[in-house]
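Allow me, if you will, to draw on your knowledge of protein folds for a short while. I have a record of one protein: its chain in single-letter code and its fold written as discrete structure tokens. Could you please explain, in whatever detail you think fit, how the structure tokens follow from the sequence? The record follows directly beneath this note:
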Amino acid sequence: MTDIPKSIDAVATLLAGQNYVVGRALATVIFLALKLGRPLFLEGEAGVGKTEIAKAIAGGLGRRLIRLQCYEGLDAASAVCEWNFAAQMIAIRTAEASGGADRDALKTELFTEDYLIERPLLQAMRPQPGGAPVLLIDELDRTDEPFEAFLLEALSDFQVTIPELGTIHAPEPPIVILTSNRTREVHDALKRRCLYHWVDYPSFPREMEIVRARAPEAAETLSREVVAFVQKLRGEDLFKRPGVAETIDWAKCLLALDVIALSPEVIADTLGAILKYQDDIQKIAGAPAKKILDEIRAELSPA
């Protein structure tokens, strides 16, 4: 286990050790969230590295990462705990077969932690080897408002309530990271309990740093062309603009094909690594891709 970083620079160093390149503003809000014990709410386009931040923090601190993947219809039972009904039924049948079943005693025994299936929120409230875990509540915007309201207790007091067992309070608050792709607005009551940061697409120099960290085998020339091409694509009228994750995937795909420089043919063959909708691929493939390639080569060539 690693101690909580004592400075903003220490946060950047910690994340760099996990191959995560972070800017000063993001390093600052992460430092404050860790120091103050506040949840961190990260918002931004899909693929800009929000989820990876939680993974990098957990890896750097040597903490367990507990991930609650959000989806439409997610409820408290799926997020906190469920009773193991199959095991409870076996216990009931066993007691009945033995002929000595005391209904009141059996009812008490059935609703103990022995029959509890713990889900991410409850797991995060438990003591963990190596210190408090990192709780990642991923893509919160996919859930609905009732679930947001349920989260208020967990994020305000770091506790969850189970009707049969009472309130379970975390002896050491988990490090909480919430992410949203902003497909809908998250309620202000939840945001007020968090520190907030918008994770934007990186600049060209920073995205180059990211590619060097995540695909170090790529030649400098190829990396520059890949990053420049993806950055140009983000300015096009696309259904889904490629994120940093796609940039890294594309670089790794090109390495696997032993490509040393982009060409219209290579781009046509590998567009599926960076564009995930057929309409976008059709819009860029062919002449538009060649035009973008010519533009970036003119910009990257020495004056």
Observations:
- Residues 81-114 form one domain.
- Residues 85-98 form the longest helix (14 residues).
- The first strand starts at residue 40 and ends at 43.
- The chain has 15 helices and nine strands.
